[in-house]
Structures are given as structure tokens and as C-alpha cells.
Specification:
Blueprint: H1 4-23, H2 42-60, H3 79-93, E1 101-103, E2 111-113, H4 114-136, H5 144-156, H6 182-189
Antiparallel strand pairs: 1-2
Helix pairs in contact: 1-3, 1-4, 2-3, 2-4, 4-5, 5-6
Protein name: TIGR03086 family metal-binding protein
Pfam family, one: MDMPI_N
Organism: Actinoplanes sandaracinus
């Protein structure tokens, strides 16, 4: 019988696999496209996503305080292959990390339990999949179970003055009204405009 942690790991895997599907057709001509991440091209976004996978994998192995895995590196000749490799590192590390204390200096100075860290990763890759899709002009087919798992995490992220700091991972929340799609609620809670094109 899988534990709740392993169920979360499985949902996170689906979010990451969707990001890989979205990135697979990307060519060098796409890398200069604008993204919803202010000031970032698609190349910048892929480099960030790749680095985050490596950082989370290092954190799962108890090496999260080392800044090197978190560092954004120049994209190689095949950015999508590099992304896939980094994603595989994180996905392989998580199932054994339930009891790990994740150190993630990019998020906060304290350590996080495995379930919270994997939840952060899940939200990150759901939202960045939307960023990629928006940049490419393709529809997002987000897994409803992934969105349902991400929504309470996104809603719990403090919407305070830190979001205005340079390099903050999220911008201030965007107001949404009426009956809103759950993915749009995740995006708006983290400062994304769901109507960005």
C-alpha cells in the first residue's frame, strides 16, 4: 500500500512528465520566445527548470546547502536532453526521501520535510509547464489530480512584500473573479495572469 508521500511523488512525476512532453518539440528557433516569467526567454526558463531539478535532487540526497547544483548553467547543444536528464535525477531521488530534511536556500533558510519539498516541486513544475505552453502558444492539458494537489500549496504561499523583492520566485497574487478554473487559481495565487498570451 503506497504511503501518502509516495502518492505525492507519483503526482509530482506526472507534472514533470507533462513538462517533458511540452518541451520535447522545442527547437533552437523557439528559445528566444517570450515567457510569462518577466524578462525571461524560453531558453532562460529551460535553464532555470533544469537547475531546479538538480537542486531538488541534491537536497533529497542531503546536499541542498551546496549552491553548485542550484546554479543555472548555459544550455548545451540539446537543451531538452539536458532538461530530461536533470528531471530524471529529481524523479529518481524523491521516492527514497520521505524522511529527508531538504535544504533549499532559494526558498528559505530552514529545512523542509520531504512531503513539503516534493509539494513545492510539484507546484513549480505545474506552473512552469503552463509557462512553457504559454510561450509556445499551445494548450495546457494539466492533469486534474496534479492541479488538485497543487492548489492548496499555492494558496498557502504568503502573499506579502517579499514577492516584490528582486529575484522573488512569485509576484503578488492576481485577482480572479467568478467561477475560476482550478489551474487559473493556482496561477493567479502565484502572480501569473492566466490570460497571458
Amino acid at each position: 500500500m503506497p504511503t501518502k508521500f509516495l502518492e505525492l511523488v507519483a503526482v509530482d512525476r506526472r507534472a514533470v512528465e507533462h513538462s517533458i512532453e511540452l518541451l520535447t518539440p522545442v527547437t533552437s528557433r523557439d528559445l528566444s520566445r517570450r515567457t510569462p516569467c518577466e524578462g525571461w526567454s524560453l531558453a532562460d526558463l529551460i535553464a532555470h527548470m533544469t537547475a531546479q531539478h538538480r537542486g531538488f535532487a541534491a537536497a533529497a540526497a542531503g546536499r541542498g546547502a551546496d549552491p553548485r547544483p542550484w546554479r543555472v548553467r548555459p544550455l548545451g547543444d540539446d537543451p531538452v536532453a539536458g532538461y530530461r536528464e536533470a528531471a530524471a535525477e529529481a524523479l529518481a531521488a524523491f521516492p527514497e526521501a520521505e524522511a529527508a530534511a531538504f535544504t533549499m536556500p532559494e526558498i528559505a533558510p530552514q529545512t523542509f520535510p520531504g512531503s513539503m519539498a516534493v509539494g513545492f516541486h510539484l507546484v513549480d513544475y505545474l506552473v512552469h509547464s503552463w509557462d512553457v505552453a504559454a510561450a509556445l502558444g499551445v494548450p495546457v492539458r494539466a492533469d486534474p489530480e496534479v492541479v488538485a494537489a497543487a492548489l492548496p500549496i499555492a494558496l498557502a504561499v504568503p502573499d506579502d512584500g517579499q514577492r516584490l523583492s528582486p529575484g522573488a520566485p512569485f509576484r503578488p497574487a492576481v485577482a480572479v473573479t467568478g467561477a475560476v478554473d482550478p489551474l487559473d487559481r493556482v496561477l493567479a495565487a502565484l502572480g501569473r495572469d492566466p490570460s497571458w498570451r
